[in-house]
Specification:
Blueprint lengths: L4 H7 L2 H25 L3 H4 L4 E7 L15 H6 L10 E4 L14 E10 L2 E11 L28 E5 L2 E2 L1 H9 L4 H29 L1 H23 L6 E9 L10 E9 L7 E4 L21 H7 L10 H6 L10 E4 L19 H19 L11 E8 L5 E8 L26 H7 L2 E8 L15 E7 L3 E6 L9 E2 L9 E4 L2 E2 L3 E7 L4 E5 L14 H9 L5 H8 L3 E2 L6 E2 L1 H14 L6 E2 L4 H4 L12
Helix pairs in contact: 1-7, 2-6, 2-7, 5-6, 6-7
């Protein structure tokens, strides 16, 4: 008879818990390292847009460094008792993934772990692959009206059967891809890495026994639950708090406010202390910005949003120590609106640009917590967007270059935001040397986008400024939000600069599939800056001068945004203290009645002229 969770937790050897937890983290890292070293596509191998996860036989996520999809759809369609060593399961079907897959290019492989002839855990990897068919290269058509335009849908299948690959299924998938060699190589890398990870975990069970290891699993998850409840949730005042944010376009209709609304109810005495209600979220979009999040009681979204709670930790160092595993799930209840909204789309609604919704939800939770806690949350960030070019290479063969560039993170109550970060763990831009040797363009600039970070007591992080000069005619693509709206500032902080792409001075929309770019023309990509935290008029003038010296803020920005008047050269700017005091007094009079959130100058253009939303007041 299996022990209950409470019995298992109390019975777990605390030293063994540390050993097991370290082994899980090591195996997860080893799986990801193996994939990165053996994959074929730039998106997986170089940009690192993938992740691994380890789950127990009860489908609970055990690891917290990275994040992964769900095992639920696999065990739904394939009974655990019938699984065999060497089996590898595969799926990418958004609507049959129980909310774990957001769009079709995210391909997921799952491998069961065996001990004593029984399944005891699962190793999983999923990543964003180059192409799985559909209307445009990259499988992310910006004006898709149904999921059928977005690529090949594969419900859960057995891709390897007791170590033997299903060649028919692999042939079908590669035949539907414009990049068949990369797809085949990536899948082989992911399957092999997960099988290796399953062997490593099997050795852990062999060494310590199933009962002891599973007791450690219970302890790891229980420790997370209690740590979050005691250290983080206790800092949120009881009551009901409401906020909302918006996506700005869907690729089909004209730009407008697509609302994601969150009502957070906090009751520390309740068994489930946090209730997140998405009532008030806009109807599903015609275009591909929908996210199917209302499956499996929203368990994927619970783990997706929970990292925001770590900002409530006492110190940044403590925040970095806190992992997010299945232990956060019992603390959160999610209530979804009826079917047919941005978060509850009805099949076959398109979803390839669902980042517009799930990334915004991170900011909505941060915003509602900022209202609840008097601003003890970072300002907004938009740290993922896809840009790229495709056409015929110098040898005449087709190519696709797509990059997932990051942006600046929001200023925090204790520090500036970080420059050019990415929401995917360990991700990176594609190295210039690699890009220029493989594709027909030159990278003429890759640096920080000056003045992009939102002004504040703590400045928002800066985005990228990247210039590509095309050597052959090609087509440009972009899947990006925050090209009208900005990353919001909070508690007196100002919004960052929005996303901008220009091709020889011609400004592009955020959602573009096939804009022509000629040989010799320059594509300039400027990604978003994070929002600022606190009033920029309270920032130390010496720090503003240092930002000007470092090229992060221009002299005009220092004067207009921070009220700091400088003299001397840019290499050695000097603060004019008297003029700065006069200038700051003038600016303070202009912002005396500013709302708690600053959404930037793009908001009135979509709100019918309103300078801010009603929920922006505290």
């Amino acid at each position: 008879m299996r022990r209950t969770t409470a019995e298992s937790t109390s019975a777990a050897d605390p030293v063994l818990v540390e050993i097991v937890e370290g082994t899980l983290a090591s195996v997860e890292m080893e799986v990801e390292t193996a994939i990165a070293r053996t994959a074929r596509s730039p998106m997986i191998r170089d940009a690192h847009d993938f992740r691994a996860g380890i789950h127990d036989v009860r489908l609970r996520k055990l690891t917290g460094r990275s994040y992964s999809a769900l095992v639920q759809p696999i065990v739904r369609d394939f009974p655990i008792a019938e699984m065999k060593p060497g089996d590898v399961f595969f799926h990418n079907d958004v609507y049959l993934s129980e909310g774990g897959i957001g769009h079709l290019p995210d391909l997921c492989v799952t491998v069961p772990v065996f001990h004593g002839g029984e399944v005891v855990a699962f190793v999983q990897a999923f990543g964003h692959h180059d192409d799985i068919g559909g209307g445009v290269p990259g499988s992310m058509p910006s004006n898709a009206r149904s999921v059928f335009e977005e690529g090949l849908m594969v419900p859960p299948i057995k891709l390897w059967d007791e170590g033997v690959p299903n060649r028919a299924a692999l042939t079908i998938m590669t035949r539907n891809s414009r990049m068949p060699d990369s797809l085949a190589g990536d899948l082989d890398a992911e399957c092999s890495a997960c099988l290796m990870g399953a062997r490593r975990l099997g050795e852990l069970f062999d060494r310590y026994g199933r009962e002891a290891v599973e007791a450690c699993f219970d302890a790891i998850i229980s420790n997370t639950t209690e740590t979050f409840r005691r250290e983080l949730l206790a800092k949120i005042p009881e009551g009901t708090h409401v906020w909302e944010d918006y996506a700005e376009h869907d690729g089909v209709d004209s730009p407008r406010l697509h609302t994601q609304r969150m009502t957070l109810t906090v009751d520390h005495s309740a068994p489930v202390p946090l209730v997140i209600d998405f009532t008030g979220t806009s109807p599903q979009a015609k275009g591909p910005i929908n996210h199917a999040g209302d499956y499996a009681d929203g368990v994927f979204l619970k783990k997706w949003l929970a990292p925001i709670l770590r900002n409530l930790a006492d110190t940044p160092e403590r925040m970095a120590e806190l992992d997010v595993n299945e232990g956060v799930v019992p603390l959160i209840e999610m209530r979804f609106p009826q079917k047919g909204t941005l978060l509850t789309p009805i099949f076959p609604a398109p979803t390839n640009a669902r980042t517009f919704v799930i990334l915004r939800l991170l900011g909505v939770l941060a915003g509602v917590l900022a209202k609840a806690t008097g601003g003890r949350m970072p300002a907004d960030q938009e740290t993922i967007r896809y840009t790229g070019v495709y056409g015929d290479g110098l040898d005449g063969t087709p190519y696709l270059m797509r990059e997932v560039l990051g942006g600046g993170s929001g200023g925090r109550w204790y520090a500036d935001g970080e420059d050019t970060i990415h929401v995917v763990p360990d991700s990176r831009n594609i190295p210039v040397e690699f890009a220029e040797s493989r594709w027909p363009f030159r990278v003429e600039r890759l640096g920080l986008a000056r003045d992009s970070g939102g002004p504040g007591l703590y400045r928002g992080g800066l985005g990228y400024d990247k210039h590509l000069r095309m050597l052959r005619d090609a087509s440009f693509m972009s899947i990006a939000d925050r090209s009208i709206l900005s990353c919001w500032g909070v508690n007196g902080g100002r919004a960052g600069k929005p996303f901008v792409v220009e091709i020889d001075g011609r400004e592009m929309e955020g959602l573009v599939d096939d804009s022509p770019v000629r040989a010799g023309e320059i594509i300039r990509v400027r990604t978003t800056g994070g929002g600022g935290w606190g009033s920029p008029l309270d920032r130390d003038p010496a720090l503003v001068a240092a930002d000007v010296r470092d090229g992060k803020v221009s002299p005009d920005g220092a004067r207009d945004d921070y009220g700091v008047i400088l003299s001397g050269s840019q290499d050695d700017p000097q603060v004019d203290t008297e003029a700065t005091g006069i200038r700051r007094a003038e600016l303070r009079a202009l912002v005396a009645d500013a709302p708690f959130f600053d959404r930037g100058p793009g908001f009135p253009s979509l709100s019918g002229g309103l300078p801010y939303a009603e929920v922006d007041l505290v």
